[in-house]
Design goal:
This protein is an alpha/beta fold. The chain has three domains: 65 residues; 44 residues; 189 residues, Nucleotidyltransferase, domain 5 (2-Layer Sandwich), CATH 3.30.420.10. It contains 13 helices and five strands. Helix 1 crosses helix 2, helix 2 runs antiparallel to helix 3 and helix 6 packs across helix 7. 20% of the residues are buried.
Length: 356
């Protein structure tokens, strides 16, 4: 390919090209193409034309040839491209949507993008775009559990009433235990977080024992009373109730919200409650742990302190839990429940019984 091309535009073409370059409303690509022809007319080498115009050498050759064939009008038009694939027909779209919401053939439990593309005869990307447009995610699944407690409504109203309108001169605590917390230590240190790279930790670990965290969340101020114990029998539960008893000021009635774990209703526990008349237990419905406020604290301590931690012993794990509770209590805020019992019942009423 020649490195220097002699282009001699007529006077009227030169005026049009200069007008294009001077026009601030012109697209940048039109200005660049006009500059290519004007600088080529100065008999500059192709490399110099490309450098001054801010384009590549092949671009210079392409627009020199286009001007020679079609004149200035050719510089202002882009070549038409081959048409892309035709959009999917309504019949194929309906077929994909119907199959996605049905059971796949064979032993598979759900459709994949490639399986759907092969079944219908379209591209994988076409299936992905269609699923995105209709918010279909066959690879995901959500679990649920609906309580079959015959006293579900009464228990929900009781617990929610304590959250939203706690009685005066009383303390409302949400009590539960997080059992079998493992003291896991990593086989080697991980790498810290860096720009562009997440932190790392080994997938294998050493088991150094377990502990159980008993916790009572004070709904009024958000503080937590926590004790780590080796086991989670009714004996340990009674010891924890005694610790809460000592922590709550005298003269305050204690309303405790708990789930239906057997240790919470063991005869010795009921005897202890009878000996401490200021205590009143309120049990959540079966299969409704979401109603127990302390579960939110358990979720937070798991995500923020336990899951990524490395503990050389059970004592090390217990110290970390104790420090986290102390830090939580320093910045605690009252627990706020915003959903009324009626709103809960209305939401459950929208779920068809046949789907649960």
């Amino acid at each position: 390919m020649a490195q220097t091309v002699c282009i001699l535009p007529p006077a009227e073409d030169r005026e049009r090209l200069l007008a294009i370059v001077a026009d601030r409303n012109r697209p940048l690509k039109h200005v660049q193409r006009a500059n290519i022809i004007l600088r080529s007319a100065e008999r500059l080498p192709v490399l110099e034309v490309a450098r001054r115009s801010g384009v590549s050498r092949p671009a210079v050759w392409r627009w020199q040839a286009r001007y020679a064939e079609q004149g200035v009008d050719g510089l202002l038009r882009d070549k038409t491209r081959k048409p892309g694939r035709a959009p999917l027909s309504a019949k194929i779209v309906a077929r994909i949507l119907e199959l996605t919401c049905s059971e796949p053939p064979g032993e598979a439990t759900h459709w994949t993008g490639r399986a759907m593309a092969n079944a219908v005869g379209v591209s994988l990307r076409a299936v992905q775009r269609l699923w995105e447009a209709h918010r279909l995610q066959p690879h995901r699944i959500r679990t649920f559990k609906r309580s079959d407690d015959p006293d579900f409504a009464a228990k929900v109203e009781d617990v929610v009433g304590l959250y939203m309108d706690p009685p005066k001169h009383a303390v409302v605590v949400s009590i539960d235990e997080k059992s079998q917390i493992q003291a896991l230590d990593r086989t080697q240190p991980g790498l810290p977080l860096k720009p562009g790279k997440c932190g790392t930790m080994t997938h294998d670990y050493k088991r150094n024992g377990t502990t159980t965290l008993f916790a009572a969340l004070n709904v009024l101020d958000g503080t937590v009373i926590g004790r780590c114990m080796k086991r989670h029998r009714h004996q340990e539960f009674i010891r924890f109730l005694a610790a809460v008893e000592r922590a709550v000021p005298a003269g305050k009635v204690i309303h405790a919200i708990a789930d239906n774990y057997a240790a919470h209703k063991q005869p010795d526990v009921l005897k202890w409650l009878a000996d401490h008349p200021r205590w009143t237990f309120h049990f959540t419905p079966t299969s409704a742990s979401w109603l127990n406020a302390v579960e939110g604290f358990f979720s937070a301590i798991t995500r923020r302190r336990i899951r990524r931690g490395a503990f050389a012993s059970v004592a090390d794990l217990q110290d970390a839990i104790t420090r986290y509770i102390a830090a939580h209590n320093k910045a605690s805020k009252p627990f706020v429940w915003t959903t009324s019992a009626k709103a809960i019942f209305d939401k459950l009423a929208k779920v068809p019984v046949s789907s649960v």
